[in-house]
Specification:
By secondary structure, the chain is mostly helical. It is built from six helices and no strands. 74% of the residues lie in helices and 0% in strands. Helix 2 packs parallel to helix 4 and helix 5 runs antiparallel to helix 6. The chain is globular and about 45 Å long.
Length: 193
């Protein structure tokens, strides 16, 4: 009887020790098991770097989404057509999606202080100036500007998807592409009225 009693006590002690060690290991983690910021246990997660083409496309895309938003806000102010304001709001969300990718991959944000109508890329600055001038001529011209912007955006997003080797970049680009396709359809519908 004594040897059996010793085995039971030994087994209980092992269970208590294992449970205590597991509790200590989990104590440094949050409620969902995640490790809080500043925790002493190191967890390494590395992000595979972007190719130079991917990085350049993302930086360009950030400003291209800003161009769309800024142009649509000017056209809304002039023509007071709700689609311009609604789509500008959507373009702001697109900008935020691209900004999260820039932050994740340590890329500088070309938008900076986000002054309306101001772009680091000189080609986009020239495009903005030209598109605003065209869109202010007539309401039909404004809708055509919307079509032109969305066609450009769609082409550039397809290019980004084609070269992307990162799932998160592809996923964001595909989401933005669907949004741009809806915007294009909305502007085409307005032109048909």
């Amino acid at each position: 009887m004594k040897p059996r009693w010793k085995l039971i006590v030994f087994g209980v002690l092992v269970v208590v020790i294992v449970a205590t060690m597991a509790g200590v290991a989990l104590a440094g983690r949050g409620p969902g098991g995640e490790q809080p910021a500043g925790a002493t246990m190191a967890r390494t997660t590395s992000v595979m770097p972007l190719s130079s083409e991917e990085a350049a496309e993302l930086i360009y895309m950030r400003e291209e989404e800003k161009l769309a938003r800024d142009v649509y806000l000017v056209l809304y102010e002039k023509w007071e057509v709700d689609e311009f304001e609604n789509i500008a709001t959507s373009e702001s969300r697109h900008m935020a999606s691209v900004k999260r990718l820039l932050d994740r991959y340590g890329l500088a944000d070309p938008v900076g202080a986000d002054a309306p109508g101001v772009f680091a890329n000189t080609d986009l600055q020239a495009a903005y100036d030209s598109l605003v001038a065209q869109g202010l001529q007539s309401l039909e011209d404004a809708f055509e500007v919307g079509v032109a912007i969305e066609k450009l955006d769609i082409a550039d997003l397809k290019e980004l998807i084609a070269i992307s080797t990162h799932r998160d970049v592809t996923r964001v680009a595909e989401n933005l592409l669907r949004g741009s396709e809806r915007h294009l359809a909305a502007f085409k519908k307005l032109l048909e009225q």
